[in-house]
Specification:
Strand content: 5-15%
Strand order of the largest sheet: 1-4
Number of strands: 4
Largest sheet: 2 strands, antiparallel
Number of helices: 17
Order of helices and strands: HHHHHHHHHHHHEEEHHHEHH
Number of domains: 2
Helix content: 55-70%
Distance between the termini: 21 Å
């Protein structure tokens, strides 16, 4: 089996991921515009595939509505408060699902009307709040703490509601709106991409890593060719890319542990897998997050490793984690910390290979070999 639209899309996605990996390793930053070429090719290729295999314009509109919603969420997230608000984007995002759910299907499911109303209401309210976000308005909001907290929570989590609506609407369309089983792709994409968008918002994933997985799901919905291990039951390529990336990424902690043992580095067991010590006066030249906290009491430096729960809390809040990149780029803001690290002698930092690298490897291995977990399960059961 060879799906030529997906082959074309896979080449564009792989080229983009290789370039994004290079940027992330070198600069620890991947501008959002990096994804544009991959999206331009991948979205057109997916439309081509959906039209060739189903001929269902309503399903294609549903796919485009989901993609447009993610791009609009990024627009809201990255928009500066002083920039003029573009309501045309909002109109596009609201109109496409209306075509997918009500105008293009031969049979209209009226049960979707309240869900579409909720979709419009949530996006309209969040968009209006962003429209009001001038500096003057922001100052007023700071005086109304409860209202500010509500708006901040809604702004951070509204997209969860949007994705739930998309998933529910997809199942309505699958079982009564004419999409058939092909509509499972939109439902799976809504859930899969939603999880990683949320992980990105919670700082559990790097922004580039989260967007890479989201856009792989949008651009290559299924396997371009039949891999060596066969196509897994779900056939959702992005899930196999994630599984392979996670399995491949397990090699790094094992390697770090072996290197630490060989070099005689000692720390609590869990830290031996995820970090290594560097010289305190050279920490600015390394990549990673500082894994220890220090205190100088009467000339004596005390230290402790940051616990797992505390690390997760800091990741979620986006504050309190010391990144060596910040020490290098803004040393004047961290003179106290730099002096402390120098005095401590050696400082443990986490290893910092961007996850987008194993994602890229996961894409290649998924396309060529297939889903590693599926292969392992088949081997265990003798399939």
């Amino acid at each position: 089996m060879i799906l030529y639209p997906m082959v074309i899309s896979a080449i564009a996605v792989l080229a983009t991921l290789v370039y994004a990996s290079y940027r992330d390793i070198r600069e620890r930053r991947v501008p959002f515009r990096t994804w544009y070429p991959m999206l331009a090719v991948g979205i057109l290729a997916t439309i081509w595939l959906l039209y060739d295999t189903t001929g269902n314009t309503s399903l294609i509109a549903g796919y485009l509505g989901l993609v447009a919603s993610f791009l609009y969420a990024n627009y809201l997230d990255s928009r500066e408060e002083t920039d003029p608000f573009n309501f045309y984007y909002l109109v596009i995002v609201l109109v496409i699902p209306a075509f997918a759910w009500f105008i293009l299907p031969k049979t209209v499911n009226l049960s979707l009307v309240p869900w579409y109303g909720m979709f419009v209401g949530v996006l309209a309210y969040v968009s209006y709040e962003h429209y009001r976000m001038t500096k003057k308005e922001t100052t007023r909001k700071k005086r109304r703490h409860s209202q500010a907290n509500i708006n901040e929570t809604l702004d951070r989590w509204y997209f969860v509601l949007i994705l739930i609506i998309f998933a529910i609407a997809s199942f309505f369309m699958i079982f009564g709106g004419g999409w058939g089983l092909s509509g499972l792709y939109v439902a799976l994409a809504a859930v899969f991409c939603g999880v990683f968008y949320i992980f990105g918002r919670m700082h559990l994933f790097g922004g580039a890593d989260a967007w890479a997985l989201v856009f792989v799901a949008f651009c290559i919905p299924t396997f371009p060719i039949t891999p060596v291990l066969g196509v897994p039951p779900i056939g959702f390529l992005a899930f196999s890319v994630l599984i392979n990336a996670l399995i491949l990424n397990l090699v790094a902690p094992v390697g770090i542990f072996i290197i630490n043992i060989a070099r005689g580095n000692r720390a609590p067991l869990q830290y031996m897998f995820f970090g290594f010590p560097v010289k305190g006066d050279m920490i600015q030249n390394a990549w990673g997050f500082v894994m220890e906290e220090f205190d100088d009491k009467e000339g004596t430096v005390s230290r402790r490793f940051i616990g797992f729960k505390d690390t997760l809390s800091r990741m979620y809040s986006g504050e309190g984690r010391m990144y060596t990149k910040d020490l290098r780029e803004h040393p004047e803001a961290y003179t106290t910390e730099l002096a402390m690290y120098k005095k401590a002698g050696m400082v443990w930092i986490s290893y910092a290979v961007p996850f987008i690298v194993p994602i890229t490897a996961g894409l290649v291995t998924a396309i060529v070999f297939g889903d590693f977990l599926f292969g392992i399960m088949n081997l265990i059961v003798g399939g």
